[in-house]
Structure formats: structure tokens, C-alpha cells
Specification:
By secondary structure, the chain is an alpha/beta fold. It is built from eight helices and eleven strands. The chain is globular.
Length: about 220
């Protein structure tokens, strides 16, 4: 049987300025366990900022989003600009502040955020092709930024009222969920889970990711 090709859209490396490494790695693990062929990708551009992960303070240096994401992908990564919907059967976006800083500007602009144009193009192509999209943790901000005013997707970021309100201002419909739950928007073929927005451990965040990946694989085949 031919393997299903699932894209994983990374946003750097590290929870404070890139992809959350636990979430990204668990996504890769569960996709591999499901027998998927994984296509890692990221924008080829400078990060919005670089943060010292010990102190939590910004540092005055530049890092490239794709080069940093390649650390997670073990070097096998593509520029998201080069990936088309025809190349993959589904896409999953791990969280981490990079999703809200480098894939879109939600961390800075809130409900007025803008989504990286290359990311937005791929997401719109996937949606038009009815291919499933998964988003973890704060990454549903990217979904809301692209689709909120178009198709009012149902998503979750967990239970943070302020963040949920911003998503609804963007046009999405927010549903409260626990770390081990997923929210499935069957009409728009979008699946989301809170991960570290509510989880307190890697085991807890893995519970939601495992369910999300299983649902994405089921949707590919349906």
C-alpha cells in the first residue's frame, strides 16, 4: 500500500521562538507509527526574534526559521514556498510561539494578525482540495488567520478565555477542550488539540497529539 504523505509545518526550534520541540517530535513519532511519509517544511526567512531559553529574555541575534527547524527534521526539510497541495495528503502544524511569531503575527498583533503569505497559500490550496489540516497548541491562530472570515472553522486552543476571544474575533468558533481531547471540524476537515496550552507534561501533550494524528490519517482515507 502506498504511504500517505503528510506535511509537518515547523516554525523554528524551541518553544519561545519556534516550534515546541515535544509537540513537533511527538507529531513526527505518531505519524511515523501510522505509516505516513513525512514531509517537513518551514518558511525560509528570519525569525521574528530569538529567545534565550534559560532566561526567557530576547537576544540580539538573527536565526533563519527553516535552518532552525531543520534541527528537528534532522536536516530533511523544504521551503514551504515550494510545497503544493498536490504534494501532500494532509498537513499538521505543531505549536510553540514560533507558530504565532513566524507563521503568523498573532503573538504581536493578536486578532489583527497577518499570516505568512506562503503558509496561507498552501493552507488555502489544501482546504480547496479538501485535504485535512491539523493544528496544535497555539497553531490554530494560523488557521483562524487564514480561514476565520472565510469559513468560520471550529477550533480549540484549550481553555484560555482571552486567547479564545481573539480567535473568535478573527472569525473562528472556539470550543473549550482538555489536553487529551481533539476538536474536529468535519465540514472544513480541520482538527485541533490544546497540547501545552493545557497539558502539564509531555505525556499529557502526547495524548492529544496521538488522537489528532489518528484522526488526520482517518480523514485522509475517507
Amino acid at each position: 500500500m502506498e504511504k500517505k504523505r503528510v506535511g509537518v509545518l515547523l516554525s523554528g526550534c524551541g518553544v519561545m521562538d519556534g516550534s515546541e520541540i515535544h509537540e513537533a517530535t511527538l507529531t513526527l513519532y505518531f505519524l511515523d507509527k501510522e505509516g505516513a511519509e513525512i514531509i517537513c517544511m518551514a518558511p525560509d526567512k528570519d525569525q521574528r526574534d530569538v529567545v534565550n531559553h534559560i532566561s526567557g529574555e530576547p537576544v540580539s541575534e538573527k536565526r533563519n526559521v527553516m535552518a532552525e527547524a531543520a534541527r528537528i527534521a534532522r536536516g530533511k526539510i523544504q521551503d514551504v514556498r515550494a510545497v503544493k497541495a498536490v504534494d501532500i495528503d494532509a498537513l499538521v502544524i505543531p505549536g510553540g510561539f514560533g507558530a504565532a511569531k513566524n507563521l503568523c503575527s498573532f503573538a504581536v498583533d493578536g486578532a489583527a494578525c497577518k499570516v505568512d503569505e506562503n503558509v496561507a497559500v498552501l493552507l488555502r490550496e489544501l482546504h480547496e482540495s479538501k485535504k485535512p489540516i491539523g493544528a496544535l497548541c497555539i497553531a490554530p491562530a494560523v488557521i483562524a488567520g487564514v480561514f476565520g472570515k472565510i469559513c468560520a472553522p471550529e477550533i480549540t486552543i484549550g481553555s484560555d478565555a482571552q486567547t479564545a476571544a481573539a480567535m473568535e474575533t478573527m472569525g473562528a468558533r472556539h470550543k473549550t477542550a482538555a489536553f487529551d481531547e481533539i476538536v474536529v471540524d468535519s465540514k472544513n476537515r480541520i482538527v485541533t488539540t490544546p497540547c501545552y496550552m493545557t497539558a502539564q507534561s509531555i505525556q499529557e501533550t502526547g495524548a492529544g497529539i496521538e488522537k489528532l494524528v489518528a484522526k488526520i490519517m482517518e480523514m485522509i482515507n475517507s
